[in-house]
């Protein structure tokens, strides 16, 4: 149940805000190395021909290709908005349980009926994913730089933004930790779990509340920021280090926005499967060899061509070399 609160402002300039950079633990240096690898990969997305903006669709399609190799029993989407990923998983994997969490009550009210989640068999829930269960405050930006902002939006958060004159509608919503919400799944059959997380700066809270779920997770895509955009947020290196500590491997990333992007992680066990290694090689080859040049078929998106190429290659992966 969502409760609407008073409007509030957050206009402290980022320059006057004290920011503490995490020193990290044993895996911090390794996280920096993986960050360099991911940054080198992202450098192949062309600044021309919409290469960087197209990278989001490319990496999303790669995530779904990997999900097809995983064949999960549970798919979780946190920060779902319209739950596009959940609807695609439902269409491609009808036996998988699909659960989508959306904290913004205006988004949920708009789309819960319009997009037919009940009929699709998708659990579309007005809950905030965080590190504990109980009421939390969702900060819906309502006005910024003299402009009114729409309430149906995908870019508000449990956190406030740094360095803006934003005004907020503070809304009390029910929060859940994934470990608690899916305790029965964690304790039950060992079917794989896949997660898509886009929680606008609240990645640390989500991950801290999902340590047990992550032990069962083979595939995760999560949005990260490498600059401080939200109060008390984890940056990209913090997320990489946390997941390295739990034996995940960062495979690839997109570059849709400057210093804000999605990273795909897989469990170490899933990574070592031959078909996953081969799909990753094909993905990396495409990114490095083709995402920096102009498409000769502008009507055929790069992500579509890549999926066709993968399917052909994966189908012949056991052929003699």
The CATH topology annotation reads as Rossmann fold
Total domain modules:
1
Mean pLDDT: 87
Query: Could you say what the CATH architecture is?
Result: 3-Layer(aba) Sandwich
* Share of β-strand residues: 15-25%
What series of H and E elements makes up the topology?
EHHEHEHHEEEEEHHEHHEHEEHHH
Largest sheet, spatial ordering of strands: 4-3-2-9-10-12-11
Q: Uncertain runs with pLDDT below 50, 5 residues or more? A: 9-18, 294-298, 317-321
Shape: globular
- Per DSSP E runs of 2 or more residues, the count of β-strands stands at 12
Q: State the helical fraction.
A: 25-40%
Largest sheet: 7 strands, mixed
Main CATH class:
Alpha Beta
Cα end-to-end separation: 58 Å
DSSP summary: helix tally: 13
What class would the helix/strand composition place it in? alpha/beta
The radius of gyration computed from the alpha-carbon positions, rounded to a whole number of angstroms, is: 20 Å
Task: Describe the secondary structure blueprint for this structure.
Elements: E1 3-10, H1 28-42, H2 51-70, E2 74-78, H3 84-92, E3 97-101, H4 105-114, H5 117-120, E4 122-125, E5 128-129, E6 134-144, E7 147-148, E8 166-176, H6 178-181, H7 183-187, E9 193-197, H8 203-208, H9 211-215, E10 217-225, H10 236-245, E11 248-253, E12 260-267, H11 268-271, H12 274-290, H13 302-315
Parallel strand pairs: 2-3, 2-9, 3-4, 5-8, 9-10
Antiparallel strand pairs: 1-8, 6-7, 6-8, 10-12, 11-12
Helix pairs in contact: 1-10, 2-12, 2-13, 12-13
Compact overview of the structure:
The chain contains 13 helices and 12 strands. It is of the alpha/beta class.
